[in-house]
Amino acid sequence: MTDIQQKIEALRDELRQHNYNYYVLDNATISDYEFDIKLQELQELENKYPEFFDPNSPTQRVGGEITKNFETVTHKNRMYSLSNSYSKEDLIDWEKRIQKILGTDKVEYTCELKYDGASINLTYENGVLKSAVTRGDGFQGDDVTANIKTIRSIPLQLKHNFIDSFEIRGEIILPFKGFNEMNAARIEAGEDPYMNPRNTASGSLKLQDSAEVANRPLDCLLYHVVADRQPFKTHAASLENAKKVGFKIPDNFKVVKSIDVVFDYINYWDTERFNLPYETDGVVVKVNSLAYQDELGYTAKAPRWAIAYKFKAEQKNTVLKSISYQVGRTGAITPVANLEPVALAGTIVKRASLHNADQIAKLDIRVNDTVFVEKGGEIIPKVVGVDFAKRQADSKPTIYATHCPDCNTALVRKDGDAKHYCPNEYGCPTQITGRIQHFISRKAMDIDGLGAETVELLFKENLITNYADLYDLKVEQIIPLERMAEKSAENMIKGIEKSKEIPFERVLFALGIRFVGETVAKKLAKHFKSIDSLMKASFEELIAVDEIGERIAESIVNFSNNLVNIQLIDRLKSYGVQLQLSAESLENQTEILQGKIFVVSGVFAKMSRNELKKSIEDNGGKVSSSISKKTTYIIAGENMGPSKRTKADELKIPVISEDDYLNMLV
Ligand code: AMP
Ligand code: ZN
User: Fold this and answer.
1) Average pLDDT of the residues in 50-77
2) Ligand 1: which residues within 6 Å by Cβ?
């Protein structure tokens, strides 16, 4: 190393340490002025000797990179959401479920605050920040690395070795102090103040000019290390070690031995949270042992090993002026409250959800009532009760809608369904356009050049009445329409044409079969491999598929027996839409394990639990989460749960090793 290079590196190290002292430890050891002098010195050296450029130098924190379009990237590990709980009973139930699965009542928990901001996934390789991606829909997010690098508390380079390659997740927040200062400056400049810190933080991540992000007093609190091979045994240990290498992990983190102590933590923070420098909307409780976490796994949406406890949301009262009814693409009716506008949790609320007829009856909600409105984690506020003292003498109970607001068909409600439905599936305009809009949406057929409004227009002009009609559209038919030109018409046709490449599982989701969401569609595609075998499947065959319940099975059978759908599918096929898995995705799949049901328990040496499960499914086997008479084999890794061991012995189910399993495949 040359002298110059050494000098540059020494300055960088020193500035990194000062950054850390100031932004992570909140304990500066030099004045801002001294810091600026050193930073300037470094900047000058870097300008003079560009051969020593380092994208992770402290000089890079000031930003300046412009991003026009944030690249969408697929998360290596899905970013799940969290199950919510609102009461201590919920937490006790959660604990019972966990103890049952693990077969022990000795489970340690960690308690953390639920930081209210925008979630972020940071990837580090060999101690250096490689990328920062927003959560997005959990599967894919936006690459916002250039902006994230300007947040001083996020290390660009770690202090010591940690894990060679890992992800760390956290929340980008805007502490109150910085938020208020930003707003004061805006007001002085004659601009409107920002509504709340959370939205401002998440909005900041998508600014095009990273220099502007650098000027915002953003912070990042971290809470989860994700790695293929974790060298740690507990969540607490992984966080403590992450803290040692420079990450900002709040001190209010705590390890507890039982759920009782979790309550103490919740009670303490329920009032103490108002003294925090940033917003929190709850507590997150996690199972501390990583082996247990692995054993508990995930539901379709959230880890089983964690739960959020939400503090009571902010509530306001206001007058309910009227109730209107909306129809969704599945025909479900949603009652909506039209309110006297009221300021709530940073926004002006004019409409709120009323859920369904039962809820309205149960709470006895009536027009002209003064109602309590609450805004929890959900975006849409909801009506949670009535101030009966303010009820007017002439008030009358609400009579729920009897007919569809759109097509005037009498509504129906099946036993056990909370919602009313408009049964006019193929004649109700909102349902028709809603289904087509769902079909073309981003996660479904992702048709470029065609939007929700155009679908309504095409329907109004009688050019389409179902999604198959899209594929018959001609440029000449579209050009004469309002706001359409040759170019946009051509783009639309091109987009429709291109959708023929969308893989089967997404087509299946696009069909809009009730209860068949993205995850279920994936499961079904994998299991049945083609629309033909799915539509031929009986109710029994369907419920035999892992995670397919009666409700879903019934809905698929109904769909498949309907002549209209059969014709639509035939048409889609004739246009070349993917209605079976491609040869490529079938390639790695065999039927070797056909009919065998596996239970996987413990930690494995050669692959992760998820890889193992995927391998079983790819080879035609089934994975079940609990041992029963039907289980064919239990694959046991290290630390297999003791209750599973006992149960396996009881039912005399063979317990095999990872290697035994791999030998089955050859
Ligand atoms: P929700 O968006 O309500 O499903 O809650 C899940 C989100 O909570 C996660 O995506 C995180 O962004 C956020 N979160 C905030 N604090 C924590 C924490 N301490 N542990 C885990 N997740 C957290
Ligand atoms: Zn209708």
Assistant:
1) 88
2) 81-82, 112, 114-115, 119, 135, 171, 223-224, 284, 308, 377
CATH tag for 597-664 (out of 3.40.50.10190, 1.10.150.20, 1.10.8.60, 3.30.43.10): 3.40.50.10190
CATH topology of domain 504-586: DNA polymerase; domain 1 (1.10.150)
CATH 1.25.40.10 fits 429-501, yes or no: no
Q: Which of 68, 100, 106, 114 is catalytic?
A: 114
Tell me the pTM.
0.57
| 3-state SS assignment for residue 331 | coil
What does the pLDDT read at residue 377?
Answer: 45
- Ligand 2 centroid to 367 CA: how many Å? 24
Residue 163 three-state SS? coil
Identify the burial level of 190 via C-beta atoms within 10 angstroms of its C-beta, where 0-12 means exposed, 13-18 middle and 19 or more buried. Answer: exposed
Average per-residue pLDDT in the chain?
90
Q: Any idea what DSSP says for residue 409?
A: P
CATH 1.50.40.10 for domain 84-310: no
- For position 606, what pLDDT does the model report? 85
Burial class (CB in 10 A: 0-12, 13-18, 19+), 173: buried
CA dihedral (72, 74, 75, 76) positive or negative:
negative
Homologous superfamily, domain 315-390: Nucleic acid-binding proteins (2.40.50.140)
542 close to 552: Cβ distance less than 8 angstroms: yes
Q: Active-site residue 350, yes or no?
A: no
| Cα 283 to middle of ligand 1, angstroms | 9
